[in-house]
Amino acid sequence: MDIHFFKYQGTGNDFIIIDDREGNINLTTQQVEKLCNRRFGIGADGLMLLKQKPGYDFEMQYYNADGKESTMCGNGGRCLVKFAYHQGIHKNKYHFIAIDGPHDATIEDNGWVYLKMKDVDGIKQYYGDFVLNTGSPHYVKSAGHLQKLDVFNKGREIRYSNDFAKEGINVNFVEEKSECAIFVRTYERGVENETLSCGTGVTAAALVFAHNEKGFNRIEVQTLGGHLAVEYDKIGEERFENIWLCGPADFVFSGKVSVGE
Ligand SMILES: N[C@@H](CCC[C@H](N)C(=O)O)C(=O)O
Q: Is 198 a catalytic residue?
């Protein structure tokens, strides 16, 4: 069977997107894994299906490169909104449903997609580091000389440590550049490698480094794949609402791929 696919990327986090509004796409774990494989397939950090859902503009279904359906993907969500726009779904404000609940999104004049993330309640301290859920589970660790850090091995060590091995966790290393700017590198669960950017990870890192008491409610974030920003309202010490992940999301190429019988 041949499938028409579209390739998108958001700050270098790249995705295969398939329009499944007719509801006839049924891919196995092995098929998704092969499509995401950079030698035997199209190559991507993840795969998404755009589906129909009553009451929403669309539904987002997300799979990691290992072929398994996973939790929320921030950069993926931004790419899917741009894809929906390119497919003729034109809205001033998009309202879609993903595995972690409803999301709003807008496409700005400069092409950036602003994606509203779920509210975050509480950031847990973990031996001097931080653990939180921004739609996906994230570990946030402060790091100096981040450009030179061995993110693959250090991230993998935490991801497969006793407390996290079973469910998995995404591991973000963060270098503070100024009071309102950070540099983030992420080891992603389900890709089991460093990716060029991770949207829910960037969001998690920004919330950990949020200095609202000094009047900032926007953090600029540099990743290996480009620039993002995170906006938020900090409510007391524990809660974040009105969280927006903002950045570019672009079409790369499209084609037909064979997935066997
Ligand atoms: N790249 C993503 C995160 C995708 C999900 C993650 N790998 C997981 O399984 O938790 C993003 O941009 O948020």
A: yes
Counting atoms of ligand 1 from 1, which one is nearest the CA of 169?
10
Q: Is 36 an active-site residue? A: no
Give ligand 1 pocket residues (Cβ under 6 A).
Answer: 13, 45, 64, 70-71, 73-76, 136, 170, 188-191, 198-200
pLDDT tens digits for range 25-75: 999 999 999 999 999 999 999 999 999 999 999 999 999 999 999 999 999
Classified by CATH at the fold level, domain 2-109+249-258 comes out as Diaminopimelate Epimerase; Chain A, domain 1 (3.10.310)
Structure tokens at 84: 């929906």
**Short-list 108, 96, 110, CA closest to 21:** 96
Q: What is the pTM of this model?
A: 0.97
Whether residue 215 is predicted with pLDDT greater than 90 in this model: the reply is no
Architecture of domain 120-247: Roll (3.10)
For the CA of 195, the nearest atom of ligand 1: 1
* Torsion of Cα atoms, 161 then 163 then 168 then 174, to 10°: -70
3-class state of residue 70 by DSSP = coil
- Is the ipTM higher than 0.90? The answer is yes
